[in-house]
Amino acid sequence: MPDFTTAYFTMTEVDALEYARTIPHFFSDNATLSCLEIGDGNINYVFRVVDDVTKKSLIIKQAGPTARISDEFKLSPDRNRIETEILKLQSKLAPDLVPKVYYYDSLMNCCVMEDLSDHQILRKALLEYKTFPLFADHITTFLVNTLLLTSDVVLGHKEKKALTKNFINPELCEISEDLVYTEPFYNCNRNDLLPPTKAFAEAQLWSDDAFLLETAKLKFEFMTHAQSLIHGDLHTGSIFVTSESTKVIDPEFAFYGPAGYDIGNVIANLIFAYLHADAQIQDAAQKDIYKDWLTGTIIEIIDLFSKKFTATWKEHVTERTANYPGFAEYYLASVLTDTAAVTGCELCRRIIGLAHVADITSIDNLDQRLHAEKIALFAGKHFITHRTSIRSGHDFIQILTTAIARASQS
Ligand code: SR1
Ligand code: MG
After folding, report:
1. Interval between CA 311 and ligand 2 midpoint (Å)
2. Bridge partners, residue 111, by sequence
């Protein structure tokens, strides 16, 4: 049995299997276990351990000293503590919408949690053209509860500042500052883009000083606006689904930042699913039905978020000045502005930057992929530059529709 109590080391599948036996009150002493490393994200190692007889199972997520995608990213394993603590907090704010945490080990930097193998990662499900009629309702409850209930309008300000301190996350924030807000907007050597898309980015984005100024404002908004305890990486690869259930996972990028960051990530990644369906589905009727479901879901998420936000505000606000007439509307409008801006940044960075999405990279036909990338960049720029006038779900779809028309003409 390896020594898990003296010094940290990155585990193999064999180590993780033995480690699972040390989790108190989970597997029986003589259980026959098997273990597989199933992580497909950019950063950590994820082991699934199963009792071969009872089928009882758990997940061990271990943080290594560097990101899995590249040793260039040296990352504090403190992200594993942050993930554990925010999952516990989110399970109180948004019950049933996050996995249960069983155990945390600050020496081995492991979080042991509920196995969600009966669910599917939303990005993969969308690439198989599955629909989830309850998703908009579930994700808006998660967004409103985790974002509004951790903000200064609800929490005591000292309690909120203590949380801000506890969730300081400089290294993971630096990844987003670089990969989302900086590198996509110049000819950075870490970018990874196809030559025609590079030419398009040069002509449409990198040479437009007025646009670049807006991206700089947004970067500083991300770095300085400690509004809500955000998930920080809420793309469709961070969400598990079934037809009845939604579970938000992987909150290791969490910190106090702009609430719109999480909502914008959800919307942009649904747009990527739309672009994938548009390029890949052959049957015209099936394509239309699936795209309609995606646009309907985007509209429902924005409009239901606003509705639930307003209701939750009325029920939970404690800050005296937040009750002044007009303040709730002002606050919600600023969250929607940030949502639009982040939708734009995410659309740009997943096309231009280091970290891509399978929705786009798996488009078989190169011309169709380039067309989808153009749509994402046209829409991304529009979301950023027109962010203050984007308020409804319909507004979001209007921008996508305009970008599709522009890409077809160019
Ligand atoms: C180095 S990490 C690259 C990306 O993967 C994560 O999921 C975040 O989205 C990050 O930007
Ligand atoms: Mg992740």
Report:
1. 31
2. 61, 104
pTM: 0.97
Closest residue by Cα to residue 251 from 61, 48, 138, 87: 87
Ligand 1 centre distance from Cα of residue 360 (Å):
16
Residues 344, 383 contacting (CB under 8 angstroms): yes
Residue 265 CA: which ligand is closest? 1
How remote is the CA of residue 404 from the centroid of ligand 2, in Å?
29
- Tell me the per-residue pLDDT of 56-104, one tens digit each, with 9 for 90 and over: 999 999 998 888 888 888 888 889 999 999 999 999 999 999 999 999 9
Nearest CA to ligand 1 atom 4: 355
Cα gap 103→49, rounded to integer Å: 14
- pLDDT tens digits along 379-407: 999 999 999 999 999 999 999 999 999 99
Point out the ligand nearest to the CA of residue 172: 1
Atom of ligand 1 nearest to the CA of 233: 9
Q: In this predicted structure, what is the pLDDT of residue 69?
A: 81
pLDDT for the residue 40: 82
Integer Cα distance of 262 and 268 in angstroms: 10
Q: Write the DSSP symbol of residue 169.
A: -
Residue whose Cα lies nearest atom 3 of ligand 1: it is 355
Beta-carbon contacts of residue 400 (< 8 Å; ≥ 6 apart): 271, 274, 295, 375, 379
Residues 143-155 pLDDT 10s: 999 999 999 999 9
Name the nearest CA neighbour of 258 among 192, 340, 374.
340
